[in-house]
């Protein structure tokens, strides 16, 4: 049997294992029929999954969850980070402002150059003028960081400007927090045409092949947790204490970085289907899907190189290669099986689109294109977004920023003190500007003054020594982690695509894709031995093995 066939068979087993997780899933957030006074059916009462006695999960209405001690009665703040969103923010705000379970809607205007702030204020939202992000912060995380400090609700739900909530979403998410600490939900996507839907669905299929279906009951390990930053919910006090957005301030894939960081800190993170309650119109064209979603699709800055290579190999071998062989008229029997599985997935993905059409059916034919985009984003990541360019953040940050008493390192981020936004609101006292304490596994107890810190104690693997005096540096989370002078073990199979990258994290050893022009997927000469090295935004590396 040829090496390529063996590699493809192993990759197929990996995909089958991941898809099988969908057999046991949490119930989706949805709407349940209720009766009006005239006896007519209506469907604006949301249902949420609640864990009962013995660990069994059942779906109950939001009202029933509230009676049973759910969190629907808690004050809910909706925070919308917005930068130049005047063209699509109206439907987002209209839905949030109309929901009776929402106590306030906050729009953090991230230095927009258009009428975003004006529109938000006219519609009745509370506008928080965002300040420029400090060095090392990505704009969205900085906007959310300001927004949750300005919020007054017990529960914060973050919402992207292109998201359109339906009645019941916010109450359902608040109630679902009875069973988890961080919740994100999957929407139904709106696509403008056949080509846009085909490319979007092909991109979406790569996520399913790499991480399995949404809502699986079995919790994955922290380094494989997924989330959707378009709509997330959490308890405000817990997030402030964890300082979550500061810990993932460098990442372009901020949602997944936040979920993995907090999961590694012991949070219960959940990702549920909410297609009945949320729609998202992400892009305005096929080119927009390619450019904007494609840049973050690889999750490069939250995935170590070995697993990155493994994920790429799986996509090339099980999705792209069968289509390429079919196009040349030489598919193998395994190729035909894989094509059948892929086309059956289009049926499962119908619920992910508001208007599923022929584009969804044609999406498998674009899998080689999706594989190319995934590879491109892995090898040449883009760090520019909405007119801003950000410094690189990779999994290596958790190694390079590891501290030891013998080798303190200056952290330029700490030299930019984090200040609460200056919130002017007649109904609420002004937020006092202070030098912030940056807490959590990043930097604890470091009173930041000016460009340095005096007499500060820096703890955590994500922290680096402050450029000040008399600072104590403790390593609180790194145990024998790092990249050692040993190559990645497990020879790559030539002709399969990735050469020299041992694919151990995905369950495939020695699968590569040479024909796709991927060599080592950025893993040349850098082996990981005895430690799983990945960037969790300041939580440090884990000694779990790679």
TrEMBL record:
<protein>
    <submittedName>
        <fullName>Glycosyltransferase</fullName>
        <ecNumber>2.4.-.-</ecNumber>
    </submittedName>
</protein>
<feature type="compositionally biased region" description="Basic and acidic residues">
    <location>
        <begin position="409"/>
        <end position="438"/>
    </location>
</feature>
<keyword id="KW-0808">Transferase</keyword>
<feature type="region of interest" description="Disordered">
    <location>
        <begin position="396"/>
        <end position="546"/>
    </location>
</feature>
<feature type="compositionally biased region" description="Basic and acidic residues">
    <location>
        <begin position="34"/>
        <end position="44"/>
    </location>
</feature>
<feature type="region of interest" description="Disordered">
    <location>
        <begin position="23"/>
        <end position="45"/>
    </location>
</feature>
<keyword id="KW-0328">Glycosyltransferase</keyword>
<dbReference type="GO" id="GO:0016757">
    <property type="term" value="F:glycosyltransferase activity"/>
</dbReference>
<feature type="compositionally biased region" description="Gly residues">
    <location>
        <begin position="489"/>
        <end position="528"/>
    </location>
</feature>
<feature type="domain" description="Glycosyltransferase 2-like">
    <location>
        <begin position="77"/>
        <end position="238"/>
    </location>
</feature>
<feature type="compositionally biased region" description="Low complexity">
    <location>
        <begin position="458"/>
        <end position="468"/>
    </location>
</feature>
<dbReference type="InterPro" id="IPR001173">
    <property type="entry name" value="Glyco_trans_2-like"/>
</dbReference>
<dbReference type="InterPro" id="IPR029044">
    <property type="entry name" value="Nucleotide-diphossugar_trans"/>
</dbReference>
<dbReference type="Pfam" id="PF00535">
    <property type="entry name" value="Glycos_transf_2"/>
</dbReference>
